[in-house]
Amino acid sequence: MKTKMNVNQIIKKYNLIFLLVVFIIISTILSPSFLTLNNFLNLLQQASIPGIVALGMTLVIILGGIDLSVGSVLAFSGMIVSMVVFRFQGSAVGILAGCLTGLVVSAIMGLVTGGLISYFKLPDFIASLAMMEIARGAALLTTSGNPVFNLGDAFHVIGGGFVFGKLAISAIFWVILTVILALVLKYSIFGRTLFAIGGNREAARLSGIKTKRNYVVTYVLCAMLSGFAGILTASWMSTGQPTAGTGYELDAIAASVIGGASLSGGVGSVTGTFGGVFLLQILTNIFNLVGLPSYYQRIAKGGIIILALLLNKFVSKSKVK
Amino acid sequence: MKKNKLVMTLTLVLVMVMMLSACGSEPSDTAANNGSSGTEGSTTGGTEGEAEGTFTIGFSNCSQDTPFFANMTPIIEEYGKGKGVEVISLNADNDVSKQNKDIQDLLSRGIDILIINPVNEDGPSAGIEACNNAGVPVVTVDKNIKKGNDAWVGRDNKEMGRLVGERLIELLGGDSAAGTILEIQGTAGSTTMMDRRDGFHEAIDKVSGLKIVQSSYCDYDRSKAIPATQDLLQANKDVVAIFGHNDDMAMGAAQVCKEQNFENVLVCGVDGLMEAVLKIEEGGYDCTASNDPVLLGQTAVDTALKILGGEKADAFVDAGTVVIDKSNVAEYADSSLDFATMVK
Amino acid sequence: MQNENILEMRKIDKVFPGVKALEQVDFSVKRGEVHCLIGANGAGKSTLMKVLSSAYTEDGGEVFFDGKILKSHSTDERRKEGIAVIYQELSLFHELTVGENVYMNYYPKTRLKCVDWKKLFQDTQALADSLNIKINASSQVSELNIGQRQLTEIMKALACNAKLIVMDEPSSTLSQSEFEILVRVIKDLKEKGITIIYISHHLEELFTVGDRITVLRDGKFVTCKNIDDITEDQLVEYMTGINISQIQRDESEIHEVSEDKVLELSHMYNHKVSDINLSLHKAEVVGLYGLVGAGRTEVLQSIFGLAPVTAGEIRIHEKKVTIKNPQDAIRHKIGLTPENRKTQGLVLILPVWENMTLVSLAKFKAGGRINYRKINAECDGYKEKLKIKTPSIQTVTRNLSGGNQQKVILSKWLMQDCDILLLDEPTQGIDVVAKEEIYNLIREMTAMGKSIIVVSSELTELLRICDNIHVMYDGKQIMSSNKANFNQEQILHASVIGRTV
């Protein structure tokens, strides 16, 4: 039996579903190719990698922090994995070793970022911005900016493979990770402490919660999720690309906030973020289907994000009074 | 006490990260051309015998973020070394103001001639002016600038687009060909992109039955080209071919075709990227126009040396291109290279 | 023809969803008097004043001011009529000067329609001088202390020629000497013919400044009396509907304290206090009294692991312990309700149940996951037991009143089954009814065998509930007193001069 959420959060959540439905309806009207199984499956695949990044970002936002380095960590991890896989000529050993190394490296980066913010009290914005630069530089340094090709078909399966014909494996990963994190946030002690720390760090500390440690753990989780997204990206593209993941942090933040997270901390939902990512992907998708020129796409995307948030605010305010 | 331990651990970790990435730049790890990796600011000395009057070439590259650009630096350095000149190279990371600074740096290090691949054609005007004032000749490579240079070594991108278009029409059945062609576009505002596009359109327009549908700008990025291709295939019926402004993107499109069972769709691009050339051999990719960075870089150095030797160079030096398809792919396929080369 | 009453609010109704905040309330204030308005939290005082200032619109009834009915419902209009309200959370701009704040939006203008700064500062200084308060009109508000800021607010009201000033809990942040200045200013204002409505929890103050007093309870008007015709106890009874004197008789009995020493501080030093020696026995209530800055909170901080002990020992059950952080303290079954409820004690955006389980969440874990059914049951139980007034345990804690928030914090530690409770100013800012409930809780907790240390600035409170009181001054412990020989004068004296006589 689940605890009832407080009214505000329910409205916000249904708000998102309402928005999604509106988007889907409008998109269907604008393009007959939209509401097809094939397009939907494409959407899932396209949204899965930014979606996994956004999951990590949501955790950090609930905690009351921010992590701007996610895109760069994605790239660095992707490069490391690609290099290892290439060295072992795409063999199973290489893939396993590569993925492990990629995850470990991302975890270390998360450890550093989280440690700087939590133990050395650096502002999270600046610390993660600095890591963003470091990781990106490191990614470019690995191969002097060259992408790594020829990673082999076996590796390609992880991020680019399908099951049941058209269902992307990366999408399955996304869904599974979302479910796991949702359960963690709701049913594990660690998960609940994130809300407490995000809501009032001092009160959490005075109630015996290990705030510093949990801070670091969350940043490590976020970085590892980005690292995993890096593995999937390299696999899908069959290329290790040092420029991968650029700009992913902003989309991750937008998706989290559309999904109900508050940048001041203590509020957020991974299932909401799932919806938020999906919403943003629908935007890009419908722009492509309709053939909207690139520049308009960016303006429209920004405008619609603002509209979505305003609608959110408006509906929740008018219902709870 | 605890805090000190923490400082130690974190410093150690940071050092590890640095070392790990440094390890990565070993030559054997990547499929880099001819086994050399170019890092910013490297200097290659001339051979012992020709120590007197060694020229110094400064090379200002626009970025390292695509294989094409990344390859140019080591090519120019190697070739220059072989010709007995010193080469100092810098990379501007797509930042115009950095490129201007790079040029100033090169000038203060006493270069005799500047080879530059500009970030954009207006950009580094301050740096170019400084060169003009210092009496240092300027040779542009790949992309051109508006004024101030003594020669431009480049390619006729329009010709490349047109050649690919013409070959595509042949592969589609000649003048009676009909259907939709998806055009996956590069970076908005780039002259290279516009030339390739215009050349391609010029060729295709001659056949009335073929229609072109353009994608959004995918910035030569495969990760953007793949979703764009997925969506365009979804929205357009009767697609017979896909043309990407570079092979990197077109390869992404080819992958989508394979995944979504569009086996009969022809895929072509520009650049002569080895991955694409090998795919032509294997099947699944149809044609490309070579954009050999080796020949380009070497020609640039040759032109520079010509000017340094007192001769006048042509305003535009065409480094040449060739269309590679199934019929001649055997000559060009070579998995040790990044790009198909016309240099034998 | 001037009415004797400057303000008449007749049959005011105000309804919020599910709650009748005000029901047929009559409230009249005579011209030139200081009229006190009191009632428990939720009684309707703030709501009534918000209706007066037009921050809220009444659902029924009328407001007459200076003989005419106030039809307009804009706060600006009401201000222009001469009604000024000074809220508890002062509304000053800290980065601006006193003068700018006082004349905010009503700047004197030069002929060229620019702000006449010279006149602005002159007038402000004149106001300050006329009230005999030492404030420089060109100082930045951030440089002023709380008392001076309070007075700046009053000047603000005067600057727009207020005829009626409402002061909502003006003294809650003032020291004794600052309060005395406020009293004098109020007297001066009275002489100028300005009417004052004074709202405060500190009943003694009302007797100092007030002429008449109106009591509200549960949104209804209870009574209006002259200050001379009523005693403090009677006031409390009007406010709460409870007979206080009986309770106080029960409390004055001295009860036996057990021999079992649960906590002992032996020559304890930290960054602020020196040589603290006290023992806490099982079921005992120990009080720490002293002025602000005496170091009482710092003693609690060391026990709870927030301030490192630089010398001396802390012993629990006769064994020396080192408490380096809150987790250690909790493991030793110690709990702390901090001085500042909202910023240190609660996560306001989370629901009541979540704040209650903040410490003890681990005990609700079964089979790898948190059991919400168990949480709901236990939290509802505490809600009943502690009489916490909230629509449900899902309600966001921010919406509860101060007293109920404090009860939530107490439940948090009770749920953790703490043996030693450190309460820092537990009844600060809480209305009389809730205060009694908390004293009751403290009694019940000791009956359960728990031991409590209370830090408070209200000596009367400590005298009622403590078995032993220690007085602190400037980081040192200067006096200890047992219930059998409590001497209020002596304790007060010692806390102020820093030594026993």
Secondary structure layout:
The complex is a heterotrimer of chains A (321), B (344) and C (501).
Chain A: H1 7-30, H2 37-62, H3 70-87, H4 92-118, H5 124-142, H6 153-160, E1 162-163, E2 167-168, H7 169-187, H8 189-199, H9 201-206, H10 211-237, H11 248-258, H12 270-290, H13 294-319
Helix pairs in contact in A: 1-12, 1-13, 2-7, 2-10, 2-11, 2-12, 3-4, 3-5, 3-10, 4-5, 4-10, 6-10, 7-8, 8-10, 11-12
Chain B: H1 2-24, E1 43-44, E2 56-61, H2 67-82, E3 86-91, H3 96-108, E4 113-116, H4 125-134, E5 138-141, E6 151-154, H5 157-172, E7 179-185, H6 191-204, E8 210-217, H7 222-235, E9 239-244, H8 247-259, E10 266-271, H9 274-282, E11 287-290, H10 293-308, E12 316-318, E13 323-325, H11 329-332
Chain C: E1 5-16, E2 19-30, E3 34-38, H1 45-53, E4 60-65, E5 68-69, H2 75-81, E6 83-86, H3 98-102, H4 117-130, H5 146-159, E7 164-168, H6 176-191, E8 195-199, H7 203-209, E9 212-217, E10 220-226, H8 232-240, H9 244-251, E11 261-269, E12 276-281, E13 285-290, H10 296-303, E14 311-316, E15 319-321, H11 326-331, E16 334-337, H12 341-345, H13 352-356, E17 365-366, E18 369-370, H14 372-385, H15 402-415, E19 420-424, H16 432-447, E20 451-455, H17 459-465, E21 468-473, E22 476-482, H18 488-497
